[in-house]
Design brief:
CATH topology: Alpha-D-Glucose-1,6-Bisphosphate, Chain A, domain 4
Distance between the termini: 46 Å
Number of domains: 1
Low-confidence stretches: none
Strand content: over 45%
Helix content: 25-40%
CATH architecture: 2-Layer Sandwich
Number of helices: 3
Structural class: alpha+beta
Radius of gyration: 16 Å
Shape: globular
CATH class: Alpha Beta
CATH superfamily: START domain
């Protein structure tokens, strides 16, 4: 499955970049995320509980960041195991660009699944992936906009 998209975030690029690297913000924005911890400078371990069609599973996995260009973007590679539900693995490229309304976050992602999840059919998997991505980016944009507003109104 391949997915591309972009999200307007009404905040300066510096604030968006900071949020993309803030474990607490990411944990709050990732659908179903119950645990997120930094392992090394370039990797995280995560746990998320998700429902995909009739299957409810808890995925544990590792995410690694590469091609990091501060204030511009990075690549993400991840793999998660969902027990009897199967596995998911994939990657994404994330890039930031300035916009008169704030910052545009542009992403391209590719994912592969196996096990019981693969038996659900590509339409359901694609629809669920798009829904989860939409939830993440809406929540992320909201969190970052709130953070930007707080920073602009707090006394220096």
């Amino acid at each position: 499955m391949d997915m591309t998209g972009e999200q307007l975030i009404p905040a300066p690029r510096e604030v968006v970049w900071s949020a993309l690297n803030d474990i607490a913000i990411l944990k709050d924005c990732i659908p179903g995320c119950t645990f997120l911890e930094k392992l090394e400078d370039d990797s995280l371990t995560a746990k998320s509980a998700l429902r995909i069609g009739p299957i409810k599973a808890t995925f544990t996995g590792k995410v690694t960041f590469s091609n990091i260009v501060p204030m511009q973007g990075y690549s993400i590679i991840g793999e998660g195991q969902g027990g009897v539900a199967g596995f998911a693995k994939g990657g994404a490229d994330v890039h930031l660009r300035d916009d008169e309304r704030g910052t545009i976050l542009v992403y391209t992602a590719k994912a592969d699944i196996g096990g019981k999840l693969a038996q659900l059919g590509s339409r359901l998997i694609d629809a669920t992936a798009r829904k989860l991505a939409g939830e993440f980016f809406e929540k992320f944009a909201s969190e970052v906009a709130s953070k930007a507003m707080a920073e602009s109104t707090s006394p220096a």
